[in-house]
Amino acid sequence: MAKQRKYLHLAAPRGFCAGVDRAVRIVEVALEKFGAPVYVRHEIVHNRTVVDRLADMGAVFVAELDEVPEGAPVVFSAHGVSRAVTDEAERRNMIAVDATCPLVTKVHVETRRHARNKRHVLLIGHAGHPEVEGTMGQVAADEITLVETAEDARTVNPPGDADLAFATQTTLSVDDTAEIISILQFRFPEINGPRGEDICYATTNRQNAVKAIAAMCDLVIVVGAENSSNSQRLVEVALTAGAAGGRLVADKHAIDWDEMDGATHIGLSAGASAPESLVHEIIDAMRSRYDLVLDENALVEETVTFKLPPVLTRQA
Q1: Residue in 43, 110, 131, 143 annotated catalytic
Q2: All domains of the chain, ordered by start, with CATH?
Q3: Does the structure show a pLDDT above 90 at 314?
């Protein structure tokens, strides 16, 4: 029997961003430099395949620093940590290696600058996300307020006598964040914004790439973890931009083939913490099942790279 013909539209760019690539490389180089075990506070990035591979190499993932022996090397995840965490690592003489994405570090620096200038910060982001916890932990609790939704932006009541500033989590929906910022700027015309865009280039590029294919797709598949903010946003963006259906999958084993059978034009993307190998495994699985017609048109070519931290590059 002839195979069903399927048209697969690959979103590009997709997958690993420079910050994730750097964070993974930091753990690899730390293992080379210090030997196993190297402790990592939280998942280095939100992807089980990546975490399992590094664990096999000797990385030990922990929830908090009290699980790390004094003086041991510890890597902070790409999402960033609060100042309390860095202070504790220093107090306990740990070899701290900071894998925080430089674009998240930029938000940390802005947030501390606003606090020094006596501005109350409205942080646009999702409660409980490690990046948000790290950013809120840069300043005192009474110097920052979390704004999650447009409704929050309409009702938030910052201290009445304070100058205001806003910052954003780097992995949000560009369109949703623009709405929240507009509401804040309408309510508080003097509010101070970031010097440049807080939402990272990779998040913006991946959302735009999904928007470019969504309207032609019966189904858009995004490879990523359930706890990956940028991956979740890609599914939302696909549906908002006209895709008939959208699905987040961890890997090829999570594919609903009955759903796939019912679609003719299928989009495929991957969140910034999902390795390209997972994308190719899905393509191979589709090729074995369908008569597959593949197209890929990259909207932009990403050339951003970030250096490793000095603690890993200094000669002994």
Answers
A1: 131
A2: 5-16+201-296 (3.40.1010.20), 18-101 (3.40.50.11270), 103-187 (3.40.1010.20)
A3: no
Tens digit of each residue's pLDDT (9 = 90 or more) over 161-210: 899 999 999 999 999 999 999 999 999 999 999 876 788 999 999 999 99
Where residue 299 falls among pLDDT bands split at 50, 70, 90? confident
Residue 131 known to be catalytic: yes
Q: What is the DSSP letter of 192?
A: B
40 within 8 A of 74, measured Cβ to Cβ: yes
Using the Cα atoms of residue 240, residue 15, residue 228 and residue 171 in order, give the sign of their dihedral: negative
Using alpha carbons, select from 120, 148, 117 the residue that is nearest to residue 132: 148
| Single pTM value for the model | 0.93
Beta carbons of 291 and 302 less than 8 angstroms apart: no
Is residue 95 within 8 Å of residue 71, measured between CB atoms? yes
Directed axis angle between helix 229-240 and helix 201-214, to 10°? 30
What's the mean pLDDT in 11-25? Answer: 97
Place of tokens 């590009």: 12
* Residues β-bridged to residue 207: none
